[in-house]
Amino acid sequence: MLEYVFILPLLSFAVAGVIFAVGKWLPIKGASAGIAVAAWGFIQAAMLFVKAVRGSIALPYEASIPWFSVGAHQLSLGVYVDGLTLAMLLVVTTVSLLVQIYSTGYMHGDPRFKRYYAYLSIFTGSMLCVTLTSSMLVFFMGWELVGVCSYLLIGFWFEKQSAAYAGKKAFITTKLGDLGFLLGLLTLFYAAGTFEISAIMEKAQNGLIPVALAGLAGILMFLGAAGKSAQFPLFIWLPDAMEGPSPVSALIHAATMVAAGVYMVARLYSVYTLSPIAMDVVAWTGAITAFMAASLALTCFDLKRVLAFSTVSQLGYMMLALGAGGFTAGMFHLTTHAYFKALLFLAAGSVIHAVHTNDMREMGALRHKMPITYVTFLLGTLALCGIPPFAGFFSKDEVLVAALSRSPFLFALGAMAAAMTAFYMARALVMTFHGKPKDAHKHDHAHENPLVMTIPLMFLGIVSVISGWALTRHEIFEHLVNFEGALPFELHHVSHSTVALVSSLVAVFSMVFGLWLYKSRPDIPALLREKFSPIVNMLEKRYWLDAFFLKIVAWADSLSVVLFSVDFNFLDQIAIDGWGWLTIKLGKIQGWIDTYIVDAAVDAFGTITLYSGRAARLAQTGIIQNYLLFVAVAVSIFAAIAFAG
Amino acid sequence: MMLSHYLAVSGILFTIGLFGVLTRRNIIGILMSIELMLNAANINFAAFNRFLYPGQHLGQVTVIFIITLAAAEVVVGLALVMAIYKNLKTVYVEKYNILKG
Amino acid sequence: MTEQIIFYMLTAVVLFSALGVVLLPGVMHSALCLGLCLAGVAGLFAALGADFIFAAQILVYVGGIAVLILFVVLLAGTKADLTTRQINDAWLPALLICAAFSWSFDKITRYFSGIIATTAPHPTIRAMAGALLGDYAVPFELVSVVLLASMTGAVLFGRRKAE
């Protein structure tokens, strides 16, 4: 079964081609083909996962074929499957399948429906490439491909100026990180001499990679992860990426692509654990991101952006866990988060589909109009906030345990982020579903969505409730996804139950506080906004990060003006123009030589050819027998030579 | 009779044919002269076969092939002559110069 | 003795009729001379003991080619041909070249002088048949393709233009 796992990405790419080519004639304009392939992938992944949990397949599995060789380095195409791969595979295929089903309702009637599904299939294929590949080179290719798909899908409604702009912003910002990723990859190749993941892991664990190079490669590659997984300071693109269709946000910008950075760090964990500096960079960036993004979500009125900031914040958690040495915790949070965040986005998409606005100030009191959406959104919220016994509780708890065993400051940042998470989710819940309808017109037109959209919601709702409990039972997940190498630092011993108690108390308290505040005293938040207007302003400006990057662009702009003037006044005027003058003079001299010496010689040749041709033409009479005569003369001369001796 | 007798006959026949090819103005005459030359060669083949390799037949087989191909050549050649004659209304080769610039 | 008489008679027929082919002003006469010459060559083949070639020569050359040429002479001639010069201006160089060729042939002939037949001639038809359908079957078949091609070509050239 593992032998055929390589077919999954190829099939996705193939079906993208099929949808592009003949999607028009397929059922549901090609969506059926995409869904069929995604369903097949999901079944495969689920079966593999179950078998791996039961221990009936041998992991890690590796198979590859040679691709090409450069010098002594043999590059190959292949798959590398271990517990980590299977966890990611399950996430990708599940969310991809549900999103594709959901999209048949959400994108119904879109003029570029077929293209949308083709993009989704390409994205799924690329993401599976990233997940399954045995070579970091292919990993990088898949990494860039998901970036392209993200760009295409964010800007899917490119008629909207802001969507086109957001796609561009996402692409360029992640590209900034990808530059670091590429440099890091090359450093790693220099250090390890191979792109093969298994070989890199082996070398790293045997101490064959120098610590300094491993740290450098790790930090450079983490730049790429920061771009892709929206870490500080490159997370600015993710809120804007919400311009894309909501299912796309669920698939790409919540569950899979943004998790690719986390996955990359986990994939190369053997390299990261060599260098404590790299680990600290990962952990602190994660913690700061978790805190900052959570604070940014507090003042946001756009439902999807709240979720986007929440995603950034949770991705920060994952990085924090990985950097603090909690390998299993980070990947566990990735898995559970993928499900409940996809759920939240799909539910938000359902709301937006119904009321045609992203702004929470225009919603309210939707819980009776859209009961299924409301319940599933509530489940997702509880999971995200870390209320026991929902999925988020288990994973967030593990992350906080990992953070505390590394450093109390990391734990403090994480805990504050957790408190804010519970608060802003309560706020979003109340503003969207409770209270009084603020926009009567929109409220009247709101309605529950068709089953194709609600079934994925219900499925994900169930998963969000049980996945945390189910995966920690008998430590299933920990047995499957774990890291056996040594960490570069000592961990403090902490009490799991204390952390669990503290984190759930914090979450419950701040959630209840948020619910009370927005439900019973909606005047207080407005008051607070006025009182703390500088802070609110700072949050609304996103810590001036956008402005900061724009400043950099502006600064680069003015630098380019200076460079232009240098170029124009100095280089162009003196060097280029002087050179031009010299060239003209030389050209004139050369022209004289050309005319009177070279051309004359050429003409002489022409004349000679002309006259010799005229002479030779005398022999060409056009009479066959003259030619025959020449032939006979030649033959008789040869005969004479032959027989004279 | 000796081999050299036959060779002498064939040589003279070939020379006569060559003279004809070089001097006849009539295209049909030239074709006929070519036939003479081919026959001279045929005599050679048969004679060598007879005198030098009496037990073998390669010379005679070759003659058969030459006769056959000569027949083919004459057929095509005469067809061409007729086609040209239909267009140019002459059989004299020095008039066949419409390609001359 | 008889053999020599026959040989010289045949040689005389062949050479004189060949000269007639080349030198006679009337193309009609040339063609008739050609027929005679080819028949003489057939006689020479018989004298060489090549009975199958003798037969083939009579059938193909005398019976086929000579007749074909006669047809064409009849088709492609004008009255003016009888009064026009049939030999072109290059007869002198041609003569010189023929002299050079004759000299070469003389050399060759002298090289092979004194060789006489060691065995009596015997019928070769059976052996020829074996050779043509055995060792030379492939060339034999290829020749048939050539004949087919030439026949097609002749028909193509000879047919009237479709209007």
Describe the structure.
The complex is a heterotrimer of chains A (about 650), B (about 100) and C (about 160). Chain A is about 75% helix and about 5% strand. Chain A has helices at about 5-20, 30-55, 85-105, 115-130, 135-155, 160-190, 195-205, 210-230, 235-240, 245-255, 255-265, 270, 275-295, 305-325, 325-355, 370-385, 390-405, 410-435, 440-445, 450-470, 475-480, 495-520, 525-530, 535-540, 545-615, 625-645, and strands spanning about 60-70, 75-80. In chain A, strands 1-2 form a two-stranded antiparallel ribbon. In chain A, helix 8 runs parallel beside helix 13 and helix 14 packs across helix 17. Chain B has one domain (about 5-95): Helix Hairpins, CATH 1.10.287. In chain B, helix 1 packs antiparallel against helix 2 (about 25-50) and helix 2 runs antiparallel to helix 3 (about 60-90). The longest helix of chain B is centred in the C-terminal third of the chain and has 31 residues, at about 60-90. The model of chain B has no long low-confidence stretch (mean pLDDT about 90). The termini of chain C are far apart. The model of chain C has no long low-confidence stretch (mean pLDDT about 90). The chains are: A mainly alpha (about 650), B mainly alpha (about 100), C mainly alpha (about 160). Chains in contact: A-B, A-C, B-C. At the B-C interface, helix 1, helix 2 and helix 3 of B face helix 1, helix 2, helix 3, helix 4 and helix 5 of C.
Any key phrases for this structure?
heterotrimer, B: 101 residues, mainly alpha, Helix Hairpins, 3 helices, elongated, C: 163 residues, Four Helix Bundle (Hemerythrin (Met), subunit A), 2 domains, 74% helix, 0% strand, globular
Low-confidence stretches of chain A: none
Shape of chain A from CA axes? elongated
Helix/strand class of chain C: mainly alpha
Can you tell me the CATH superfamily of the largest domain in chain C?
NADH-ubiquinone/plastoquinone oxidoreductase chain 6, subunit NuoJ
Protein chain pair with the most extensive contact, residues per chain: B-C, 68 and 86 residues
Q: Could you tell me the radius of gyration of chain A in angstroms? A: 33 Å
Q: Termini distance of chain C? A: 65 Å
Number of strands of chain A: 2
Mean pLDDT across all amino acids of chain A: 84
| Helix content class of chain A | over 70%
Average pLDDT level of chain C: 88
Instruction: Kindly state the percentage of residues in helix of chain C.
Output: over 70%
The share of residues in extended strands of chain A comes to under 5%
Residue fraction in strands of chain C? under 5%
Number of strands of chain C: 0
Categorize the overall geometry of chain C.
Answer: globular
